[in-house]
What does this fold into?
Amino acid sequence: MAEITFEGVSKVYDDGTEAVLDFDLQIPHGTFMVLVGPSGCGKTTALRMVAGLEEITAGTIRLGDRVINDVQPKNRDLAMVFQNYALYPHMSVYDNIAFGLRLRKIPGREVRTQVEKAAATLGLSDLLKKKPRHLSGGQRQRVAMGRAIVRDPKAFLMDEPLSNLDAKLRVQMRAEIARIQRDLGVTTIYVTHDQTEAMTMGDQVAVMRDGLLQQVGTPQDVYAHPRNLFSAGFIGSPAMNLIEARLVQRAGELTVEFADTRLRLDDRPGNHSQLASFVGRSIVLGIRPEDMEDAALIGEAPADRRIGARVDLCEVVGPEVYLHFTVDAPPALTDDTRALAAETGDEAVEALEHQAGGKHSAFVARVNRRTAAREGANVELLIDTAALHFFDPQTGNALS
It folds into this structure.
């Protein structure tokens, strides 16, 4: 069995930098686990500790039943795939794939069998005599994958292997890597900062921030039920809209209110014990862009499910349209939302703080392409109130 287990694992560098803190994670045999988070969140450090390329400050890492904290990297039976391919430029594709087998003194006939099998799996059979300089980026990455596959390792460790490829190749290689992993059934840890890769490739996703594990689950579960503000804002494209709002109880009904908008919730406070305790208080309201639709395309809908908007920008994206507009409510301004904005740059943080000061928020709705909404026009959007998200503004934790 090639289950990988982190038990209270930490990595603190000599200068005091805390890269990973009290990290607990169990990766069952055959699972494709994606570690995702912004740059500097500790995901690559966690991967390198499994590989033996970083010493562990505290805790235990197990490979199956074996503690591997002090096992030399070469004796861990793990295969790494890096973002820079790490191919030998003077060797052919065949020799690059065969290199590790030859180091292990595998007989030549078996080497050939293994290399040809891996090449066929990866579509490299016609390229075995070529040198890396004659290959495209996608082909080089497949060679790096081939070198890992032939070793028949207990687990694959992949550190942002697609980051050097163009957008079209990334989509192609995402599908290819996921297919190969399913076919081989090898436990895989895949590190990326790209949440699209995480959502489309992984059986499980582990969201990290500042060395701490934020949430673990299937991509669908992490997306539909974010545990906190950071997971909610990091996973999803376009990102979740997050604003300040108030929970109010009126005539036995629970509503969430901001500016002149009042949205009635289907459930009574008694059915949401966490929400009930926030009645009359400020909360952070999260609305996914796809949970809004042009009301003109729906027909009759109650007023307490609608929000009026003036379209600032209309982006046609294939089968969908992104409507950008502003609402008269301040954005959620917390450590989490500042960290999310910082991923885009200092200007994004300044824009967020400016919006908070002006008590207005930039919103995005992802609506059907049949919408007649255009820039400068007013539109009414129907909100799926059953899909709203609520967070404690103090802790950032989800309320329901």
